[in-house]
């Protein structure tokens, strides 16, 4: 799977973990990803860029 560009308004880590199966491949059955758990508990550590405005 080719690397995809994170769309505007999305957190890069959330996007990668949701759309790249290789990220969680090393985890066992029913094992939580420590990065995802930390992300859910503490929130997004990134400044998420806003979506482009389509108003003229």
Q: Helix amount, in percent?
A: 25-40%
CA gyration radius, whole angstroms: 14 Å
Q: Would you list the SSEs in sequence order as H and E? A: HH
Class derived from helix and strand content: mainly alpha
pLDDT < 50 stretches: none
Beta fraction: under 5%
Report the principal-axis shape: elongated
Mean pLDDT: 81
DSSP strand tally? 0
User: How many strands, what sense, and barrel or not for the largest sheet?
Assistant: none
How far apart the termini lie comes to: 36 Å
Instruction: Count every helix, treating DSSP H or I runs of 4 or more residues as helices.
Output: 2
Describe it:
There is one protein chain. The longest helix is centred in the last third of the chain and has 9 residues, at about 35-40. This protein has 2 helices and no strands. The chain is mainly α. The chain is elongated and about 50 Å long.
SSE order and pairing:
Layout lengths: L11 H8 L14 H9 L14
């Amino acid at each position: 799977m080719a690397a995809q560009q994170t769309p505007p308004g999305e957190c890069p880590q959330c996007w990668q973990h949701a759309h790249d199966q290789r990220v969680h491949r090393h985890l066992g059955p029913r094992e939580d990803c420590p990065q995802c758990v930390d992300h859910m508990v503490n929130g997004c550590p990134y400044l998420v860029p806003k979506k482009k405005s389509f108003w003229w």
